[in-house]
Amino acid sequence: MIKIAVLGYGTVGSGVVKVLNTNAKKIAKRAGQEIEVKYVLDLRDFPDDPIQNKVVHDYEVIEKDDEVSVVVETMGGTKPAYEFVKRALLAGKSVCTSNKELVAAHGTELIQIAKDKGINFFFEASVGGGIPIIRPLNECLTADRIEQINGILNGTTNYILTKMAKEGSDFDEVLKEAQKLGYAEKDPTADVEGYDACRKIAILTSLAYGAQVDYEDIYTEGITKITAEDFRYASAMDASIKIFGTSKKIGGKLYAMVAPQMIQADNPLYSVNDVFNAICVTGNMLGDVMFYGKGAGKEATASAVVSDVVDAVKHLNQNVIIFWDAQKQEVAPMDEMENRFFVRIGISEKEKAEKEFDEIEPVDAGIEGEFGFLTSKMTEKAFHDIIASFETFITRIRVGF
Questions:
Q1: Residue 200 annotated as catalytic
Q2: Which of 28, 76, 125, 240 could be 98's S-S partner, Cβ–Cβ 3.0 to 4.6 Å?
Q3: Residues 379, 358: Cα–Cα separation, whole Å
């Protein structure tokens, strides 16, 4: 029997315990032996929960117990998660985590410690909740050269944009509804400003190309400026607006961003709605492969964590190589990235737009006093240099078609 400890008994941590108890026989068969939760670390007590007799408040109890072979970290954030995870690895215990902040900030260091100790640091649930994507990138797609990753990586923002599209509502109105339903946090900044998706695309890009990508280097733009009028224009083009985490290599340079984009129905991500996530990986031999499912939620995320626990038990004292070196990959300047743009300006500057941009494609959404149009593909710098001279500029959204 293998004994494990769970750090944090919140949504995901309690879900891990539930999955282990509910599917105990099947999990034992897959792992080759039974798995028992010996400790749960939390600041709180849970007197009405059977887990109470396993609750400890001092991390050293877990760290110094040689019976504990695997530690599951579901605390979130980097403090004290980073310290506890590092100490667990140094003590010879494999770690499985759902913490994207921890992985994005300290992944390479923790992977190296695990390698040196002959144990494992697994983080399948850190991106996409229950969607299997980390292991496929590390093990299943290694024969391909990854050309692009494009993903809907945050369920909160996807839910908000879906509701705006269906109901014609404004951002603030839908955000309040999402908060009431529990889809958005009281402070939704990490989601709606794109920071959550940024950490996730940094992790995926690091794995896809085998070297560290710092999330701080990735251009990040949220959805707070998207309006009901933008969706009227999108509808006129048979398009939808989604926020994507995108990375791609062109001419030996790595480009990455998190930003809203307009996409049309022939895009495999077009129909991904509500709280669902999806990640499209493009390989030079395989072409497009899409991973789709619940990107968050108690059972979905916990299921991915437990799959890592099973893998850790199957590889006790045997390190599984993860191709993610500490050597940093430089992200090319955003100014150099090429995109098409959908633009809204005042109708008074229509002729100027037709003159200043090489080619434009007008879009009529029936909004009085405005002129909407699509540009041809151009660099970010070229676009901003031109649009800066427009006095009636309203907004722009990148176009993925």
A1: yes
A2: 125
A3: 13
